[in-house]
Amino acid sequence: MSTEQPENNVAYEAPPTSESLETASVPLSPSNNENVTKDAQAQSDVTDSKPDIMTAIKGHETTHNPLSADNEIISPFFEFSADTWSTFAHNKRKVKLTEEELQKCLAFNDKISLEEVERIYMPLSRLLHMYVRSRHDRSTVIQQFLGKSIESAPFIISISGSVACGKTTTANLLKHLISMWDTNPKVDLITTDGFLFPNKILHERHIEAKKGYPVSYDVKALMTFLQQLKNGEPNLKVPVYSHLYYDVMPGEYTIVDRPDILILEGVNVLQNGADYPTIRNKVFISDFIDFSIYVDAEEDCLIKWYLDRFLKLRESTFNNPNSYFHRYAKLDLEDATHLATTIWSAVNHDNLVENILPSRNRANLIMHKGKNHSVDKVYLRK
Q1: Of 10, 101, 117, 160, which alpha carbon lies 20 to 30 A from 275's?
Q2: Helix, strand, or coil (residue 287)
Q3: Strand arrangement, sheet containing 291-297
Q4: What is the mean predicted confidence (pLDDT) over 122-146?
Q5: Position 14 pLDDT exceeds 70
Q6: In this structure, are residues 161 and 294 in contact, taking their beta carbons and an 8 Å threshold?
Q7: Does the pLDDT of residue 27 top 80, yes or no?
Q8: Nearest 10 degrees: Cα torsion 195, 198, 199, 202
């Protein structure tokens, strides 16, 4: 993967931010402080290759229509409380994970305890082990039927959900737990960020404001990769996306070489042809997935987590002169909060409602989080 640590650099995950090329600046707060306004204007005078987020959200209000209260998960799912789910570990094996190892799995500003790993993620690891073993048994049946050996295809686990829901932490943690199985599987983890079109192409197509939406991904390249992976082809190249530079890095790749299990993380992994009407494929991303997980939370929680992360990044990563978001490091607390809230309303809320949330019920398993980041309910497809 990239040598940088994404969880420490990402101001917004793949979908969270977007830019258009309008050239007027946006007031950052009702006070319209003269110094801040001048600074914002100077920051907005950027080149076409590096547009400013403040110009992209010009004209958007800082409020949005909240998701309706009846936005409930409906059958076909079994619903389990966290307490009930914790009883499904079966072998009751204690988690072999130190606090130091857990911290390495956490994305920026995420929170999770070793107790929750044991109560929620160990049963999930156990369930995934059973699914992988079942798929292996089916492959054996096919080989016996055909009377010849066939290449074993990697088992692909997808993890999706909204911006700021904790997808990266879930992916990192599952990778660690799966690698500890007695079978010692080879586990790789990639995100769909690398399959975003480079900023230059987004600019040429005038879709900077849709970065993270379905239209911003090179879906054909992603599906080609998944097909080659399932065919057992070696040394596949996955483009590297830098959250520091907020762009796909030219000439940089992650090599995926015939893993036993691949974890694919991204907002778009559960989307299908209906979400991409201009691409009339017979198969789609979700057709390559063996087990899909959706990390869910109420939108008021997502907004709070997003704001908390934005403000902490403002005090750390934004100060890096190489950061795409360095221009926002000098914003005071009020202006930074206003900007982050506006970005959520103008970009992340719409992407959630239009593209991400509609794919939730396609998942095999939904993990619902409460206000404290902990999983309080689990929904398993019947």
Answers
A1: 10
A2: helix
A3: 77-81, 375-381, 365-369, 291-297, 155-161, 261-265, 187-191
A4: 87
A5: no
A6: yes
A7: no
A8: -70
